[in-house]
């Protein structure tokens, strides 16, 4: 009986052992339970808004323009700054910026205000132009300083084949008309008559565009090099600084020949001649008596900039009689020029001015029946008609600079020669950032 019972117990243990073994094997075949990973949302912090050197996120920003009747004090009083503090700010800032006379109607300003219930102004920023700004910061201590926005210069390429005129050719490509002006009036003014271009004439230009804060386009800055094929004849032009002390820049051919004359054709842009040099002129107002006109009148709207037609030194800058406001410039021992009837003069006696520098603005001062500049031209102390003079070429490159110039233009000419005349389509193919300034 005991042996039977032992056998029965042994069988039970065997069955139990086999059952446990099958369970273990079954567990090995079962897949492991999948662990679900919780997705974590990554919140990206927004980039801080930096302008004028300040993090604008820290302030309530208020922007406006100077209006009639606005003064520095009036603006700050409107934004909860008391008069005693305004007076103190003005005293501390006067060496940097003339608050009483420096603000011009229509110019923008920015106020950085505290994030409190009063939104009290902490900083005043004034922009006299797109590039420059004045900061008067009185948040803690009083600080006043001038600065400039970051400026970026981007090199670009423009090409085209003339169908009608150069302005239309550029316009069809969405390019600045200022390129046409620079080529016609600054670079090739004495070499190519752009009023008589031929169909099929073609050009290539290397130039730079100017941007402020990466986004504000301010136009064509300068033309570095150009190639113009007129009547199947090639005309190269390369920009080169001949005088680093005075900052004089000219355009020269591939053979180092200066492309311009010593004098501009006119002292104002986009103007018309309303009265020419005429020693036998008769005027109805004076009973048709002979009243010699020893100048050339260029009609232009009031405020149009008046440019020096050549490099020289200012010898007169005053208001006198029928001349009104005028400036006179001596260019060398032979030539002088004079600019009459200005609204306002910019050049002062003793100033050295370069060709194209603004010396004043068109007005109606003195004896004048309408807005214009009377341009007078002296040769050897005698007033003459500038359009009947064989004007000298601009100063050539010196022998010592010529070798440097030829080395300088070699890679630029190579680049220019390898540009085809097919209009550029993508900006990526034509743009190169050449410099960036944060000054």
Give the count of helical stretches.
7
Average pLDDT works out at 84
Number of beta strands: 25
| Helicity, as a percent range | 10-25%
Largest sheet: 10 strands, antiparallel
Strand content: 25-35%
C-alpha geometry: globular
The first-to-last residue Cα distance is 111 Å
Structural class: alpha+beta
What radius of gyration results from the CA coordinates? 37 Å
Give a quick precis of the structure:
20% of the residues lie in helices and 35% in strands. The chain contains seven helices and 25 strands.
Walkthrough of the structure:
The protein is α+β, with helices and mostly antiparallel strands. The chain contains 7 helices and 25 strands. It has helices spanning 2-29, 72-78, 83-93, 99-102, 166-172, 177-187, 399-417, and strands at 50-51, 54-55, 60-65, 108-113, 121-126, 132-137, 143-148, 151-161, 202-212, 216-230, 233-243, 248-252, 272-275, 282-283, 289-290, 296-299, 305-307, 312-320, 324-330, 335-345, 352-353, 358-362, 372-379, 382-384, 432-437. The strands form 5 sheets. Strands 13, 16, 17, 18, 19, 20, 21, 22, 23 and 24 form a 10-stranded antiparallel sheet that branches. A 6-stranded antiparallel sheet has the order 12-11-10-9-8-25, with helices on both faces. Strand 14 (282-283) and strand 15 (289-290) form a beta hairpin. The longest helix has 28 residues, at 2-29. The termini are far apart. Mean pLDDT is 84; it is low at 424-430.
């Amino acid at each position: 009986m005991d042996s039977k019972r032992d056998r029965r117990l042994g069988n039970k243990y065997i069955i139990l052992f086999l059952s446990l073994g099958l369970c273990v094997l079954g567990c090995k075949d079962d897949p492991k339970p999948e662990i679900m990973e919780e997705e974590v949302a990554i919140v990206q912090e927004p980039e801080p808004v930096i302008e004028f050197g300040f993090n604008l996120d820290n302030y309530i920003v208020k922007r406006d323009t100077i209006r009639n009747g606005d003064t520095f004090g009036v603006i700050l009083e409107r934004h909860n700054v008391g008069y005693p503090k305004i007076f103190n700010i003005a005293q501390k800032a006067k060496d940097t910026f003339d608050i009483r006379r420096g603000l011009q109607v229509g110019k923008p300003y920015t106020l950085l205000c505290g994030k409190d219930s009063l939104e009290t102004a902490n900083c005043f920023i004034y922009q006299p132009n797109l590039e420059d700004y004045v900061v008067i910061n009185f948040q803690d201590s009083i600080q006043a300083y001038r600065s400039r926005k970051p400026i970026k210069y981007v090199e670009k390429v423009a090409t085209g084949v003339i169908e009608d005129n150069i302005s239309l050719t550029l316009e069809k490509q969405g390019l600045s008309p200022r390129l046409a002006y620079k080529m016609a009036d600054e670079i090739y003014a004495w070499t190519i008559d752009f009023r008589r271009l031929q169909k099929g004439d073609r050009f290539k230009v290397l130039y730079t565009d100017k941007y402020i804060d990466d986004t504000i386009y301010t136009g064509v800055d300068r033309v570095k090099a150009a190639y113009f094929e007129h009547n199947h004849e090639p005309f190269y032009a390369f920009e080169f600084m001949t005088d680093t002390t005075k900052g004089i820049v000219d355009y020269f051919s591939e053979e180092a020949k200066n492309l311009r004359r010593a004098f501009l054709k006119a002292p104002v842009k986009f103007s018309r001649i309303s009265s020419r040099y005429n020693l036998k002129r008769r005027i109805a107002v004076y009973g048709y008596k002979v009243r010699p006109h020893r100048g050339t009148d260029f009609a232009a709207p009031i405020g149009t900039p008046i440019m020096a037609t050549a490099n020289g030194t200012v010898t007169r800058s005053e208001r006198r009689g029928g001349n009104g406001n005028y400036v006179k410039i001596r260019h060398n021992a032979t030539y002088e020029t004079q600019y009459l009837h200005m609204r306002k003069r910019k050049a002062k006696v003793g100033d050295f001015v370069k060709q194209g520098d603004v010396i004043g603005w068109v007005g109606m001062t003195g004896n004048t029946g309408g807005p214009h500049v009377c341009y007078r031209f002296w040769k050897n102390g005698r007033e003459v008609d500038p359009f009947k003079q064989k004007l000298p070429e601009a100063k050539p490159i010196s022998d010592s600079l010529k070798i440097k110039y030829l080395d300088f233009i070699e890679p630029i000419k190579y680049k220019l020669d390898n540009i085809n005349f097919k209009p550029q389509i993508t900006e990526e193919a034509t743009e190169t950032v050449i410099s960036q300034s944060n000054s």
